[in-house]
């Protein structure tokens, strides 16, 4: 099925100038069928129009064929939003609305990116009337102009004349008349009689003005699209070949592409992959978790596992709650509440020294379900003094989730005096202040999978590793990779820990054997490896601020059906209308897709030892035989083993004995790390 998405680069606005000019279709009205209505968030913005009965409102709400005067189409939308015509909010709404209608006409869901050119080619097979085809061509032209304008905005910045002014100077009138001999671009005509001494000077002046006029004319021809809503459509509305030519390199992208165009406009230099991923996920305005407030769902009630017959009934119930809540996914702590959080609380109570006040930090607390479940369990099962003296601090980077956590924990009034949220990045060591020498617990559930990673690349088996950077292509609308020699300290440290290349040493260079070199050149095999530099940065910050912390982390040990190449490669997924769509490259994640990585728990343990100082000293001094004791005692458990040890598995069992917590989460593990007596 033909599918596509919309884009805010399709800012379907009118001509630039003091008064926007609507698209003129040279028709009194056009029929627009509403048989195939697509429900989408843009309708909510339309409904803000209140009592104003515009043609757009009638069009959205009526299932019948309605008449929309084309000259009112853009102006009525502006009145509906009540915002300046050129505002970003209005452009977002208008682009979404118009392309929703186009895709509604052709019954095409908005899921996959396709080019404008492909849309035009597909339109040949659509049973459209001539009037509808004219509307479609006009909107395509306006779309192409706005995409072109965004790409070339810097060309116009700082110019004395706006593109509209330039066009006004050379615009051909509707009814061409004989052009007088006077040259319009010359300020003063050359005198017919000129003194001999001024002939050469006047010739040079005339030549210079002619060159300037020609350049201005060429520039103005490019700027004809400024008037695309009216002028270009007037002359080329039936020229399908022109549309195909204009759209050959233009892509209709999702809303995230415009935001990342804006991001790269302020960051013209290439970005490390980890910085690109961090912005794609956590940017306050353009990131996935900012644009998708319901990325992680919250269940109103506990799932009644004992009332479900078996696995089929459980999956049916799960499908039902996903459709009802319209969220990207539910975390295990949410699906199995409160039992999942209770198991973590039991593990803490069993292994902590209760002679000290219990202090818990949670990184990325989500909706607060885990915090509330742990505090509930401690209140009911631990000695009174433990609950009375405890403190629970959530470190949350999202302000909206921080607010949600306070609401969730606040359902029990006594919890509020012991709970607080710090809205900051836990990986930023400056936010922790001075090191805390008291024992504490740190909880990280489904945090490691969303931490930024770096990518390294080697063209064959013996070539040195290179850093991968992301850069915006100058002459195209996409992003590309750039390879640089290894120089980033964080990547070097992670590579030391992993020891991916056995010949790699920070201060040594070893040449591979001659047969290996020959084999690699004859049969080159490019290598790509993802490094959890975000995890290394986070654990460095935690060990520096909380040297006596105990750690509980849970995450996915592997992910199925990953399309992106490389060891420990991520899954990049977009979810819409209850269905997920996976991408084949991480460069597609521009604020509209989740990026999550599998956790290499063997590597996590090594990073933990490195950040604690034990493995770091061995690597830096090349002392593999050091007898210095480890500072951490670690263990990795399957989720089923952890729950059977600390939880109540019977609480999540169905009637026929099926237990989704034990049977369906075999690709998840728990990592526990506690300090030893070697920790000073």
From TrEMBL:
UniProt keyword Phosphoprotein present: no
Record's keyword terms, sorted: Membrane, Methyltransferase, Mitochondrion, Transferase, Transmembrane, Transmembrane helix
Regions that span the bilayer: 203-226
PANTHER family hit by this protein: PROTEIN ARGININE METHYLTRANSFERASE NDUFAF7 HOMOLOG, MITOCHONDRIAL, PROTEIN ARGININE METHYLTRANSFERASE NDUFAF7, MITOCHONDRIAL
Molecular function terms from GO: protein-arginine omega-N symmetric methyltransferase activity
Pfam families: Methyltransf_28, VQ
Organism for this UniProt entry: Tagetes erecta (African marigold)
Catalysis: reaction(s): L-arginyl-[protein] + 2 S-adenosyl-L-methionine = N(omega),N(omega)'-dimethyl-L-arginyl-[protein] + 2 S-adenosyl-L-homocysteine + 2 H(+)
Segment forming the signal sequence: none
Biological processes, Gene Ontology terms: methylation
Gene Ontology cellular component terms for the protein in this record: mitochondrion
Protein name (record): type II protein arginine methyltransferase
Localization (cell): Mitochondrion
Primary subcellular site in the record, as a coarse category: mitochondrion
Enzyme Commission number(s) of this protein: 2.1.1.320
VQ domain sequence ranges: 62-84
Homology family: Belongs to the NDUFAF7 family.
Higher taxonomy: Eukaryota, Viridiplantae, Streptophyta, Embryophyta, Tracheophyta
Record region (Disordered): 1-23
InterPro entries: NDUFAF7, NDUFAF7_sf, SAM-dependent_MTases_sf, VQ
